[in-house]
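Friendly challenge for the regulars: who can give me the structure tokens for this chain first? No prize, just bragging rights.
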Amino acid sequence: MSATARSRSSRWLSLVLAASLSYAGMLQGAQAALIGTDAVAAAQAPASRSGAESRALLNHALDRADVVQALQDRGVDPAEARARVAALSDAQAQWMASQIDQAPAAGSDILGVLVFLFVLLLITDILGLTKVFPFTRSAR
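First reply, four minutes later:
Bragging rights claimed.
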């Protein structure tokens, strides 16, 4: 491919890209409206379950093999845990179910923080601002 053909194709590609990016902002529209305080409170309130639904959620959690293994590792008999769930009051069962709903899925965000720090240090190494990793070459 000759230099003029490459220049012509890159110019054509940049024009198409610029046009598509300029039209992309026009395609999305937003609509805003005022909402009442009661709607906000209802959206932020935890989902209310009955005592039976909360107990079903807790018993479902006790059916999982990893939960049973974790209980046994800590010296708790799964049958005893089921008996305790059955003995909970409705308010206690609902509180336990809400705690399960609000718990983070991964347990904690420490892995995300570590990955972020690694990527940040890697980028600063590549840009030549730091020298942390020996396997990077500075852009400077």
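The two ends are 32 Å apart (CA to CA). The CA atoms of residues 70 and 76 lie 9 Å apart. Your move, everyone else.
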